[in-house]
Amino acid sequence: MFDLIKYKNVFIGFSLILVIAAVAAMAVFGFRLGIDFTGGTLWQFRFNGDSVTVPALEDFFKASAGLENISLNTDSDQKLFLLRTNEMKEADHQRISDLLKSRFPGMEELRFESIGPTVGDELRRKAVLAFVLVLVGISLYIAFAFRKVSEPVSSWKYGLITLVTLFHDALIPAGLYAVLSHWQGVEIDTNFIVALLVIMGFSVHDTIVVFDRIRENLRVQKNKKLPEIINMSVNQTFARSINTSLTLILVLLALYFLGSATLQYFVLIILIGTVIGTYSSIFVASPLLTFFTKE
């Protein structure tokens, strides 16, 4: 039987290093906010036929379309383009689209979003509120679900540990996103918030499985101390946790390498979060219980 508690300081120390690195990355690099939070226009299109260069499109948008503040990205084949600019009215969108099609035949519009700054600010506030409410709600639910457990760890401590691990699981992918934001120009949008919420949902599910087994073993193994119970419970649920996570990881890998390029970073964050969440459920959440008891 694997002795998890014997190496708990190593596992928790490793997590602490990752969290510190993530916080440092966010403090140093910060985030590039997408149009969801700042307002603006996101326009995705492609060309079927002759390849079109970025300089040619930039010259068109500035000279012919009258757009000044633009950011234009393309894929390796220069077929798919993503334009970011200031908020654009529908009339301007139609006018520029007609000009673009006449200048570059074979143009096909894939996506167009235009959000005002007021809406973007409201989305940002609601995204932060949703994140906080999910953290608090899950922690309160865990404390309520384990309300009949009082010895040797009180139910509210299960909720507190769940809150700590959820922060852990969200901070590390967020730190990675800050690095990508700095070096790759990746912007955070509502998909980023959704990815963090998905990560927390999956992580807490895995944590509850382990905690529930600990609770059951505490009832039937009253002659054993808490560290022994934790080791036993983790070993009993280890294979289930790994197998469940592995099936999701395989799907996410397929989506990352074979899926749409527009969802690549969204899938990457969930992939990293799934790995971190599985690790924290087994190697962080359970050992933290021992810090709340004298056994």
Tally of helical runs:
9
Mean pLDDT: 86
Whole-angstrom Rg: 24 Å
Which runs of at least 5 residues are low in confidence (pLDDT < 50)? Answer: none
Subunit structure: Forms a complex with SecD. Part of the essential Sec protein translocation apparatus which comprises SecA, SecYEG and auxiliary proteins SecDF. Other proteins may also be involved.
Protein name: Protein-export membrane protein SecF
InterPro entries: SecD/SecF_arch_bac, SecD/SecF_bac, SecD/SecF_CS, SecD_SecF_C, SecF_bac, SSD
Organism: Candidatus Harrisonbacteria bacterium RIFCSPLOWO2_02_FULL_45_10c
Tell me about this structure.
With 295 residues, the chain is α+β, with helices and mostly antiparallel strands. The chain is 67% helix and 11% strand. The chain has helices at 8-29, 35-38, 54-64, 90-103, 117-145, 155-183, 190-220, 226-258, 264-288; strands at 32-33, 40-47, 70-74, 80-85, 107-115, 187-188.
Summarize the model shown.
The chain has helices at 8-29, 35-38, 54-64, 90-103, 117-145, 155-183, 190-220, 226-258, 264-288, and strands spanning 32-33, 40-47, 70-74, 80-85, 107-115, 187-188. With 295 residues, it is an alpha+beta fold.
